[in-house]
Write a structure and sequence with these properties.
By secondary structure, the protein is of the alpha/beta class. It is about 45% helix and about 15% strand. It has a single domain, classed as 3-Layer(aba) Sandwich (Rossmann fold). It contains 13 helices and twelve strands. Strand 5, helix 6 and strand 6 form a beta-alpha-beta unit. The termini are far apart.
C-alpha cells in the first residue's frame, strides 16, 4: 500500500481517484484532516473500494500516523497535506505554520522511525514524496527565465513561506539522516473537484450564478497553469523513477495572465451556457483592490522532469480549461455540497 496525506483535498483526491482507476493498483491509506477544503464527496466513487482506507486525522498526530504506518506497512508516502490558500494565510497564518511546518516535521519523524526499522530490502524501496509549490521561489519579472529547480527560495506570503520551510525540512532529512525523499514543486493546478475559492472555479460558478467576477488589481498577474490530471501523472513518474534527494518542477507550459484566464472562461461559457440576455459573461468582470504582497509572475521550467523521466503534460490550457468548465456545469450537486454559508461569508469578506 501507499499512504496519501491530504487525500480528500483537490489535488490529493484527484490523485487517489486516478491511482485507483487501475484495477491492479496498490491500495491507498488516505489520511485527511477534513478541513473546509477536504471533501469526502469527491471520493464517493471509491467509497466501497476495498483498496481505499480513509482515516480522518492530522499529519501532526504522531500517535495516529505511527499506528497507520505499523498496521498497514506502506511502501511509500505521498504528502499532499497542506493549508494552501494565499488569501487565507494573509488573514490567519497560524494554521499554515501548524500544518505546513510543524505537521510536516511530525510526519517526517514518524516516517523516519518507521523506515529505520524496515528490513533492508523494504528500506531500499521506500519513498517519501513531498508535494510543494512554485510559490516558494517568489515572483518573476516579466521577461525573467522561468523557475528551475536551483532557483533561490524567495517566498512572499505566509503560505509560501510555510511551504518553503517544509521543503527545507524534507531536504534536511535526506542529507542528515539519509531518509529517502523526493520533492516536486508544481505550478497552479486546475480541474475537477477544485474548491471554489480559487480563481478558476470561483469565476465559473460566479458567472453562471450572475455574480461579479472579481479580478485583483489590473489582472496582469501571470501564472503557469497545470491540469490536475497531468500533475497526478507526473507524481507517479517521480514516485517510480525520481532520484532520491532530488527536486522536480512540474508545470503545464501555459503562462497566462489572470485576466486572460477569466476572459477565456467567459468565452467558453458564452458557447456552452449563454446568458439569457445574450450578453457575454465578460460583462460581469469587476476589478477589486489587489491583495497584499501579490506576486506578479510565476513560471515553471519543467525541462528536468522531461529530460530525466520522460514526462510532459498531455493537456494544453485550451483543452484542459474546456474540460474543467464542462465538469462544473455537469456537477451542480458536488458544487452545492461545498458552497456553504461559511464559504459565502469568506467571499464577502475577501472581495467586498
Amino acid at each position: 500500500m501507499i499512504l496519501v496525506t491530504g487525500g480528500a483535498g483537490f489535488i490529493g483526491a484527484n490523485f487517489v481517484l486516478d491511482w485507483l482507476k487501475d484495477p491492479n493498483a496498490e491500495g491507498i491509506i488516505n489520511l485527511d484532516k477534513l478541513t473546509y477544503a477536504g471533501n469526502l464527496a469527491t471520493l464517493a466513487s471509491v467509497k466501497n473500494d476495498s483498496r481505499h482506507l480513509f482515516f480522518q486525522g492530522e499529519i501532526g498526530d504522531r500517535t495516529l500516523v505511527a499506528r497507520l504506518l505499523q498496521e498497514h506497512q506502506p511502501r511509500a508516502i505521498v504528502n499532499f497535506a497542506a493549508e494552501s490558500h494565499v488569501d487565507r494565510s494573509i488573514y490567519g497564518p497560524t494554521d499554515f505554520i501548524d500544518t505546513n511546518i510543524v505537521g510536516t516535521f511530525n510526519l517526517l519523524e514518524c516516517a523516519r522511525k518507521y523506515w529505520g526499522v524496515l528490513p533492508d530490502s523494504e528500506k531500499r524501496k521506500f519513498r517519501f514524496h513531498h508535494v510543494s509549490t512554485d510559490e516558494v521561489y517568489g515572483s518573476l519579472a516579466p521577461t525573467a527565465p522561468a523557475f528551475t529547480e536551483t532557483h533561490p527560495y524567495e517566498p512572499n506570503s505566509p503560505y509560501s513561506a510555510s511551504k518553503a520551510a517544509s521543503d527545507h525540512l524534507v531536504r534536511a532529512w535526506f542529507h542528515t539522516y539519509g531518509f529517502p525523499v523526493v520533492t516536486t514543486n508544481c505550478s497552479n493546478n486546475y480541474g475537477p473537484y477544485h474548491f471554489p475559492e480559487k480563481l478558476i472555479p470561483l469565476v465559473i460558478l460566479n458567472a453562471i450564478n450572475d455574480k461579479s467576477l472579481p479580478i485583483y488589481g489590473d489582472g496582469q498577474q501571470v501564472r503557469d497553469w497545470l491540469y490536475v490530471g497531468d500533475h497526478c501523472s507526473a507524481i507517479r513518474a517521480v514516485l517510480v523513477n525520481g532520484e532520491l534527494g532530488q527536486t522536480y518542477n512540474i508545470g503545464g507550459w501555459n503562462e497566462k495572465a489572470n485576466i486572460d484566464v477569466v476572459r477565456t472562461i467567459c468565452q467558453i461559457l458564452d458557447e456552452l451556457r449563454p446568458r439569457v440576455d445574450g450578453q457575454s459573461y465578460a460583462q460581469q468582470i469587476t476589478f477589486v483592490t489587489d491583495r497584499p504582497g501579490h506576486d506578479r509572475r510565476y513560471a515553471i521550467d519543467a525541462r528536468k522532469i522531461e529530460r530525466e523521466l520522460g514526462w510532459r503534460p498531455a493537456e494544453t490550457f485550451d483543452t484542459g480549461i474546456k474540460k474543467t468548465v464542462q465538469w462544473y456545469l455537469d456537477n451542480p450537486i458536488w458544487v452545492e455540497g461545498v458552497v456553504s454559508g461559511s464559504y459565502r461569508d469568506w467571499l464577502q469578506k475577501q472581495y467586498s
